[in-house]
């Protein structure tokens, strides 16, 4: 964390406005935490007095860049910061092309379709096509989906370099161990994660059944850049087990979709 902050400090433009540079440094520090943070911890991370940090945070809250949780009093990024992040991520060519075509995929399959990109909190939803019979879910645009227990997250787990995902993976595994969570078919060990990644890469797509979100099934596949890394994940959601069939219509359509947008060859699903 400290090294990241120092790197951000070194990148300040010469000739800029010092007060603004300092404010942006505080905002970057807030973004580098995985969740709500105390004033003391944030001040320590950016190397400033708590009283000074507090004044900046008050301005950020007023502008929507930060918010303070009522129960704990901790601080986290606010709704406008999230909106800016989604807008910036959505400007990628890969993401723009996929976003424009997402309604076609939804109409072809009759299913709800999501487009996600990688963020520090996991797979962030940047576009959403709702099926004619919408699903009742607790997530939407800007939501972050877990790496281990969502189809979207599993795509990034399998198709991004480990250095980018290992911190988030470790955090989710630690939380699962602390809460005593366990799931059939997913061993919360290093070997278990490696096996999950190998299975996804062999099939070319990721899936989850109703054990994580009761009643919901999902399949997801990557849009790959020229290095073979996931630029985005495309996900189809259903309440039916048929969406999970490798030779089913949903997986066929998903494969056609990501194959048309990827720079590298991606898997071709078995034909029915």
TrEMBL record:
SUPFAM superfamilies: GAF domain-like, Winged helix' DNA-binding domain. GO terms for molecular function: DNA binding; DNA-binding transcription factor activity. InterPro entries: GAF-like_dom_sf, HTH_MetabolicPath_Reg, Tscrpt_reg_IclR_C, Tscrpt_reg_IclR_N, WH-like_DNA-bd_sf, WH_DNA-bd_sf. Pfam families: HTH_IclR, IclR_C. This is Transcriptional regulator. GO terms for biological process: negative regulation of DNA-templated transcription. Keywords: DNA-binding, Transcription, Transcription regulation. Residues 17-79 form the HTH iclR-type domain. Residues 80-271 form the IclR-ED domain.
């Amino acid at each position: 964390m400290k090294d990241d902050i120092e790197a951000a400090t070194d990148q300040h433009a010469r000739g800029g406005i010092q007060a603004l540079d300092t404010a942006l440094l505080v905002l970057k520090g807030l973004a580098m935490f995985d969740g709500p943070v105390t004033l003391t911890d944030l001040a320590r991370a950016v190397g400033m007095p708590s009283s000074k940090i507090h004044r900046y945070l008050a301005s950020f809250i007023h502008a929507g860049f930060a918010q303070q949780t009522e129960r704990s009093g901790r601080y986290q990024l606010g709704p406008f910061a999230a909106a800016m992040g989604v807008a910036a991520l959505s400007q990628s060519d890969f993401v723009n092309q996929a976003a424009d075509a997402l309604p076609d995929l939804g109409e072809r399959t009759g299913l709800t379709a999501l487009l996600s990109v990688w963020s520090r909190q996991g797979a962030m939803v940047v576009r959403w096509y709702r099926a004619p019979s919408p699903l009742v879910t607790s997530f939407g645009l800007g939501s972050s989906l877990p790496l281990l227990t969502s189809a979207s997250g599993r795509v990034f787990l399998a198709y991004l370099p480990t250095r980018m995902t290992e911190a988030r993976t470790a955090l989710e595994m630690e939380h699962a161990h602390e809460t005593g969570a366990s799931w059939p078919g997913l061993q919360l060990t290093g070997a278990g994660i490696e096996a999950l990644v190998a299975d996804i890469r062999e099939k070319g797509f990721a899936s989850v059944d109703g054990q994580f979100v009761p009643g919901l099934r999902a399949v997801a596949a990557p849009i790959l850049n020229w290095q073979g890394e996931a630029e985005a994940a495309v996900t189809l959601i259903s309440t039916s087990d048929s969406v999970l069939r490798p030779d089913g219509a949903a997986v066929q359509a998903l494969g056609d979709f990501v194959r048309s947008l990827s720079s590298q060859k991606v898997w071709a699903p078995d034909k029915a």
